[in-house]
Amino acid sequence: MTSSSSSTLVTVVVILCCWCGGCRAQTEVSAVYVFGDSLADVGNNNHLALSLLKADFPHNGVDFAGHKATGRFSNGKNFADFLGVRQIPS
């Protein structure tokens, strides 16, 4: 019986918080930080003077607009790019 009354109380509190505006989401994101491994970090070393391995070859960037090398060790966007594009204010 105690379990059912406490779950009812929690449900009522959540509904009241949402109804009063306590669950409003922020509509604008100022930045997206992704901490990850090689699936999220495609690298960019074109601006490092001492780097011997650069990512400015034509096949790196074939999926981007203009089919131009972007300095990333990837032929296109990764999941962080797709998440970030949805957050850019229009």
UniProtKB/TrEMBL annotation:
Please classify the protein's predominant subcellular localization into one broad category. secreted
Gene Ontology annotations of biological process type: lipid catabolic process
Carries keyword Hydrolase? yes
Q: Which key words are in the record?
A: Hydrolase, Lipid degradation, Lipid metabolism, Secreted, Signal
Q: Provide the Gene Ontology terms for cellular component.
A: extracellular region
Secreted as a keyword of this entry, yes or no, is: yes
Q: Where in the cell is it found?
A: Secreted
The record's InterPro entries line, in alphabetical order, gives: GDSL_esterase/lipase (IPR051238), SGNH_hydro_sf (IPR036514)
Specify the signal sequence span.
Answer: 1-25
Q: What would be an example GO MF term here?
A: hydrolase activity
Q: Which family does it belong to?
A: Belongs to the 'GDSL' lipolytic enzyme family.
Q: Please name the PANTHER family in this protein's record.
A: GDSL-LIKE LIPASE/ACYLHYDROLASE-RELATED
Q: What's the protein here called?
A: GDSL-like Lipase/Acylhydrolase
List the lineage, top down.
Answer: Eukaryota, Viridiplantae, Streptophyta, Embryophyta, Tracheophyta
